[in-house]
Write a structure and sequence with these properties.
Number of domains: 2
Distance between the termini: 25 Å
Bound molecules: adenosine-5'-diphosphate, iron/sulfur cluster, magnesium ion
Largest sheet: 8 strands, mixed
Strand content: 15-25%
CATH architecture of the largest domain: 3-Layer(aba) Sandwich
Strand order of the largest sheet: 6-7-8-3-9-10-12-11
Order of helices and strands: EEEHEEHEHHHHEHEHEEHHHEE
């Protein structure tokens, strides 16, 4: 594994079976939620993952954390392929891999106090008890900008932003090396979003944590990420350095997504042309042949319905899966 790589994902696929029959469940089809995705994340780095709803972002995050077991592919962490490990073998590694979800209210037990919520991972996965335990809770509350007296409060007594801070404190409890942030800002007001972005940034600087930052919001991802991956219908379409992808998107899908984002500079904004994609995202049960984007692609040509483009380097590490670029030809 390359130096400083915290986690490496190779050719990850997750197909959900669709079954029919009341008693004898028979598989009649599959949802190809994720279909051959590869990337690596380095220490202290944020990889943003964008794409429309339903393109497979959450499924990637859950497969990486082994909350879903992948259909095929590898998730390499500390030299081991997590997909090959059983629950007992995974337990000591799980503490280093954490998650912050979209809606903190859904993911926090309403009958637990803040101290219970933050302390639960410590209870399960550490020997810290007694006054050390209380000190660690106070420390974690402080790290995420909450006051020590809030330890005895219940989730409904916190504001939305404070609840997300609580979710972050819980994720930090066991000093993880990697956190999947799945739409962590989507349930929050814009003014609060900036606070949580700053908090995640600070924690990364302080502890060198690597993030997989999942969001459908391209502006938020631009702010948060060092590199950005664009997914469509279970596949990675483009993967590059943040500034490179926002300045010179290569994939027609990325170009369309970015054309819809307002630009703060009025002179540039005036010239912005929105690329409107025809039709809806097709079903991942029966994805289109060839390039899965071809039925909606404004630049599609004959070969696009026949050949599957590969995600390949089109120059200086800017990877793209599109037949317009000869490097992507299978
Ligand atoms: N547990 C599941 N069972 C069946 N299909 C699922 C399940 N979870 C997700 N899917 C399907 O997989 C696809 C990708 O979903 P998801 O990963 O949630 O996308 P995103 O996070 O990008 O919105 C969608 O078509 C969704 O309906
Ligand atoms: S391969 Fe063809 S259909 Fe797919 S993005 Fe490129 S031009 Fe469009
Ligand atoms: Mg999702």
């Amino acid at each position: 594994m390359a130096e400083n790589v915290v986690i490496e994902i190779n050719n990850l696929a997750k197909y959900f079976p669709i079954t029919s029959g009341l008693f004898f469940k028979k598989k009649v089809a599959e949802v190809k939620a994720v279909d051959g995705v590869s990337f690596a994340i380095h220490r202290g780095e944020t990889l943003g993952l964008v794409g429309e709803s339903g393109c497979g972002k959450t499924t990637v995050g859950k497969c990486v954390l082994q909350l879903y077991r992948a259909t095929s592919g590898e998730v390499i962490f500390e030299g081991k392929n997590l997909c090959d490990l059983n629950e007992n073998q995974l337990r000591p590694l799980r503490r280093k891999l954490q998650v912050v979800f979209q809606d903190p209210y859904d993911s926090l037990n309403p009958r637990f106090t803040a101290a219970d919520i933050i302390g639960e991972p410590l209870q399960i996965n550490s020997d810290i008890r007694g006054s050390d335990f209380d000190r660690r809770i106070a420390e974690l509350l402080d790290i995420v900008g909450l006051a020590p007296y809030m330890a005895d409060r219940y989730p409904h007594e916190f504001s939305g932003g404070q609840r997300q801070r609580l979710g972050v404190a819980r994720a930090l409890a066991l000093q993880p090396e990697f956190i999947v942030c799945d739409e962590p800002l989507s349930a929050l007001d814009v003014s609060i979003q900036a606070q949580i972005i700053n908090l995640l940034d600070d924690l990364q600087d302080k502890f060198g944590i690597a993030y997989l930052f999942i969001s459908h919001d391209l502006s938020v991802v631009r702010h948060m990420s060092d590199r950005v991956g664009v997914m469509y219908l279970g596949k990675m379409m483009e993967l590059s350095e943040r500034d490179e992808i926002y300045k010179s998107p290569l994939h027609p899908y990325t170009q369309a997504l970015l054309s819809a984002v307002p630009i703060p500079d009025p002179a540039v904004e005036e010239k912005r042309k929105v690329i409107v994609l025809k039709g809806e995202v097709p079903s991942p049960i029966n994805p289109p042949s060839g390039c899965v984007f071809h039925p909606r692609c404004p630049k599609a040509f004959d070969d696009c319905s026949k050949l599957i483009p590969q995600l390949k380097d089109a120059g200086s590490g800017h990877e793209v899966a599109c037949l317009l670029y000869k490097t992507s030809w299978p």
